[in-house]
Each structure stands twice: as structure tokens, then as C-alpha cells.
Write a structure and sequence with these properties.
The chain is an alpha/beta fold. It is built from nine helices and twelve strands. Helix content is 40%, strand content 23%. The strands form four sheets. A five-stranded mixed sheet has the order 4-3-5-12-6, with helices on one face. Strands 10-7-11 form a three-stranded antiparallel sheet. Strand 1 (52-55) and strand 2 form a beta hairpin. The protein is elongated and about 75 Å long. Keywords: DNA-binding, Transcription, Transcription regulation.
């Protein structure tokens, strides 16, 4: 058996596998639909593998096709990374790292890492994308980012996770609220208030940890709003729509009419972790992990 495949066959296959529609895939690839059909048929014949089930106008991946879609997509991404890295070397640059992160990681952790990495790799390039925890995991599994900073306790098989910051939570109140650091005794004092929290989809484990704080304070909070952005939380608190609880590091970088009371007498702590794909071959990733 000889495989007469070219890179274009793989890209054609992925286009059809993603769209599950030959005409749409052909338009995206700027080739004719009959030409695309011939290329896919040639690939199936050469591999002796049926990749698609064709039912009238409906196209469905076979189990073998679904497997190849995932594997080829991952490995083509690796090939793209290799070629892009070679181009960076050609241009006198030393490489690029794609970061995903939750907002609090940008307060100190990531800026300090970038400064130190720049000292060692002068011409390194960075891509920075703020995204929720689950989006980071998906992006890591598909190698769209090299490293993520998440608030999760566990990650899927194939990814590594390492805690980098353990910090206290803080209560967030409007600046003119009657409760302050002097007269604050426990969260139970605020049982009749409404609370604004990070959305559970942001991180189910993080949300559960915050809810445990309320359980330990012997009340169930009234949650008026959920959001995924700290700035939105602070704006709502500032305008007296409720109070909030956030990691201590999120005190920095915002200039709003709110105040913070550190909850240093509770057992719960906010943990920021770094997560990466153990099979990622980006040479800069090892250097970054050594710094961490």
C-alpha cells in the first residue's frame, strides 16, 4: 500500500470534516465542488478508508473519519507551529508564545513573567488572550494557545497543571457602605444583602468554593447578577446592585468607587494555576515553565 497524499489532501479533508458540506467547503477552499469531491475520493481510495458517509445531501464522518479529523487537525497545528517558528528564526526573532489567561493573572503574574522572559529571549513575541477557564482548556487541547492561567482544580488528561498563586478572598462593597474593616466581624452580617458573583461557567469549581464561604457563614446568598468580568462586578457594586467576593489580586488595576475587606479568617483560598499541554513542542514553553 502506498500513500500518495499531499498536504493539500489533508487540508481539503479537514475543510469538509468541519463543514460537513462539500459545496461550502469548496467555496472556502476556492476550488470547484467536483474537484474537491475527486480529491476526497482519491484520498479515501489511496488510504483504503471510508472517511464520509454520503446520504443524499447529508454528509457524516465515519468513526475513522472522526478520528482522523482530530489527529490531523492537531498535527497540522504542530506543523504550522514548526513552520512559523522557522520563519521567526529567518526574520531574526526567537519564537512566539500564545497565552490564555483569566483577568487576575494579568495583574502581576503574567507581566512579571513577560519581563523576565524578554531578558532571556530578547526578540520573543507574545500573543495574549483573556478567556474563561473552559475556553482555555479547549484552546490548549487544540493547541491554539501554548499556556493558560486558570482557576481550576483539575484538568483533562494530557494537560499538566501547577498552582502558581494562592491568595485570600476579599469582600467588595461600595465605598460608602456602613460595613468597613473596623466593624466587620463575619460575612453573616451581610446575609440580607444581594451578591454579584463570577458566572458558574467561568469555573464551576471556583464558584463552588465561593458558595462554600457562604455555607460556612450559615446563610445562602441572594445572587442578583452573574458575570465573567471583574470590571462589570465592580461597576455593579459601585452602583449598589449588590456586594461581591473576589480573589485578592483583583484589587489592582481598577479605579472604581468600591472598597475591599480581606477575608483572612476563612479556610477557602483562591488558587491561580498554570496549565499546559505536555506534548507541546514550542521551545519557548520549556523556558517559561522553568521560570514559573
Amino acid at each position: 500500500m502506498s500513500y500518495q497524499l499531499e498536504l493539500r489532501h489533508l487540508r481539503y479533508f479537514l475543510a469538509v470534516a468541519e463543514d460537513l458540506h462539500f459545496r461550502k467547503a469548496a467555496e472556502r477552499l476556492f476550488i470547484s465542488q467536483p474537484g474537491l469531491s475527486r480529491q476526497i475520493k482519491q484520498m479515501e481510495d489511496d488510504l483504503n478508508i471510508e472517511l464520509f458517509k454520503r446520504h443524499n445531501r447529508k454528509v457524516v464522518l465515519t468513526p475513522a473519519g472522526l478520528y482522523l479529523k482530530d489527529e490531523i487537525s492537531r498535527n497540522l497545528k504542530n506543523l504550522d507551529n514548526i513552520i512559523n517558528h522557522a520563519k521567526l528564526l529567518q526574520d531574526g526573532k526567537q519564537g512566539k508564545l500564545e497565552f490564555g489567561y483569566v483577568g487576575s493573572a494579568m495583574q502581576e503574574i503574567i507581566p512579571n513573567l513577560l519581563v523576565n522572559l524578554k531578558k532571556k529571549h530578547t526578540n520573543v513575541q507574545f500573543g495574549l488572550k483573556e478567556m474563561d477557564n473552559q475556553k482555555q482548556i479547549e484552546s490548549l487541547l487544540h493547541q491554539k494557545i501554548d499556556i493558560g492561567f486558570v482557576r481550576l482544580d483539575r484538568v483533562p488528561k494530557g494537560l499538566n497543571i501547577k498552582p502558581v498563586l494562592k491568595e485570600n478572598f476579599c469582600l467588595v462593597l461600595p465605598k460608602d457602605h456602613s460595613i468597613n474593616s473596623t466593624n466587620f466581624k463575619s460575612l453573616h452580617q451581610l446575609k440580607n444583602e444581594s451578591f454579584i458573583l463570577f458566572d458558574p461557567s467561568y469555573s464551576p469549581s471556583y464558584y463552588e468554593k465561593v458558595m462554600q464561604i457562604f455555607t460556612d457563614s450559615n446563610f445562602t446568598p441572594t445572587i442578583s447578577h452573574n458575570t465573567i468580568h471583574a470590571a462589570s462586578i465592580y461597576k455593579l457594586v459601585e452602583n449598589k446592585f449588590g456586594l461581591s467576593i473576589v480573589p485578592k489580586s483583583l484589587q489592582q488595576g481598577y479605579n472604581m468607587n468600591v472598597k475591599f475587606i480581606e477575608l483572612n479568617n476563612i479556610k477557602q483560598h483562591a488558587t491561580l494555576s498554570v496549565v499546559w499541554d505536555k506534548n507541546n513542542r514550542n521551545p519557548l514553553l520549556s523556558s517559561l515553565l522553568n521560570m514559573i
